[in-house]
């Protein structure tokens, strides 16, 4: 297990760039103990998890340095006082435009097919995502994504609902539907937590993706 050095660290928190394919926290079973929090704790044993990224998602992951900081940061996340933006490659070409658009579709766990989520207008939880087209790259669209809520797989399902699933996301798009460009970033899902802004801490970090 290799330590993950922080991109930023102070007395209260630290930020890392989590690799795609690495769990944020340990899963069930001995084969799922290698994870971001354990790698960080090799150098910073006081580090505690504040939020999570999907295993397939790369990018900025915030950790607290001790229980007091964990409570403060967790509350800031719960009250939406932490601002996050993601960058992604989507299959196909989104409609042109430079303005921010919003997807407002309620999400619910698809229990027979979990961990998949689904849109459910009757029972789903309110879920909103802002997105902005950055440009086209071959058959794909590069976008910025801003989750206004924090539902499981929210960005993935909302982009699928637009008809443009995230490149490399084989949970919501079968491998045979993936474009050839999916092989370019190394068969990974092209979703990256790019920026994190904590106004109360005076902290703004940007971490560009590798795809």
Defining key terms:
single chain; 211 residues; mainly beta; Alpha-Beta Plaits; Pseudouridine synthase; 2 domains; 10-stranded mixed sheet; two-stranded antiparallel sheet; 3 helices; 32% strand
Gist?
The chain has 211 residues and is mainly beta.
SSE arrangement:
Elements: E1 8-9, E2 13-18, H1 36-41, E3 47-49, E4 58-65, H2 67-78, E5 83-91, E6 101-104, E7 107-109, E8 117-119, E9 128-137, E10 140-147, H3 154-161, E11 191-198, E12 203-206
Parallel strand pairs: 4-11
Antiparallel strand pairs: 1-2, 2-4, 3-4, 5-10, 5-11, 6-9, 7-8, 9-10, 11-12
Please tell me about this protein's structure.
- The chain has helices at 36-41, 67-78, 154-161, and strands at 8-9, 13-18, 47-49, 58-65, 83-91, 101-104, 107-109, 117-119, 128-137, 140-147, 191-198, 203-206.
- It is mainly β and 211 residues long.
- It folds into 2 domains: 8-79, Pseudouridine synthase I, catalytic domain, N-terminal subdomain (Alpha-Beta Plaits), CATH 3.30.70.580; 85-191, 2-Layer Sandwich (Pseudouridine synthase).
- The strands form 2 sheets. Strands 1, 2, 3, 4, 5, 6, 9, 10, 11 and 12 form a 10-stranded mixed β-sheet that branches. Strands 7-8 form a two-stranded antiparallel sheet.
- A hairpin with a 2-residue loop joins β9 (128-137) and β10 (140-147).
- The model is unreliable at 181-185 (pLDDT under 50).
What would CATH call the homologous superfamily of the largest domain? Pseudouridine synthase
- Strand fraction: 25-35%
Regions with little confidence, pLDDT below 50 for 5+ residues: 181-185
Shape: globular
Task: Please count the beta strands (DSSP E, at least 2 residues each).
Answer: 12
Mean pLDDT: 92
> What gyration radius follows from the Cα positions, in whole Å?
17 Å
Measured between the Cα atoms of the first and last residue, the distance is 24 Å
Under CATH, the topology of the largest domain is which?
Pseudouridine synthase
Which CATH first-tier class of the largest domain would you pick?
Alpha Beta
Biggest β-sheet strands, sense, barrel: 10 strands, mixed
How many helices in DSSP terms? 3
């Amino acid at each position: 297990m290799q330590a993950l050095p922080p991109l930023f660290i102070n007395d209260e928190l630290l930020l890392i760039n989590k690799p795609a394919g690495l769990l944020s926290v340990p899963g069930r079973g001995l084969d799922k103990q290698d994870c971001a929090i354990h790698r960080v704790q090799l150098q910073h044993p006081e580090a505690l998890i504040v939020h999570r990224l999907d295993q397939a998602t790369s990018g900025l992951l915030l950790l607290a340095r001790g229980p007091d900081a964990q409570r403060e940061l967790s509350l800031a996340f719960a009250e939406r006082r932490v601002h996050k933006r993601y960058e992604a490659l989507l299959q196909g070409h989104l409609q042109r435009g430079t303005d921010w658009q919003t997807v407002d579709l309620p999400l619910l766990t698809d229990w027979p097919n979990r961990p998949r989520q689904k849109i459910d207008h009757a029972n789903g939880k309110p879920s909103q995502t802002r997105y902005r087209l950055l440009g086209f790259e071959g058959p794909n669209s590069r976008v910025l994504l801003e989750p206004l809520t924090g539902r499981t797989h929210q960005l993935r399902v909302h982009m699928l609902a637009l008809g443009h699933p995230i490149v490399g996301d084989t949970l919501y798009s079968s491998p045979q539907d993936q474009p050839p460009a999916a092989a370019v970033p190394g068969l990974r899902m092209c979703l990256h937590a790019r920026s994190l802004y904590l106004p109360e801490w005076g902290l703004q970090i940007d971490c560009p993706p590798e795809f």
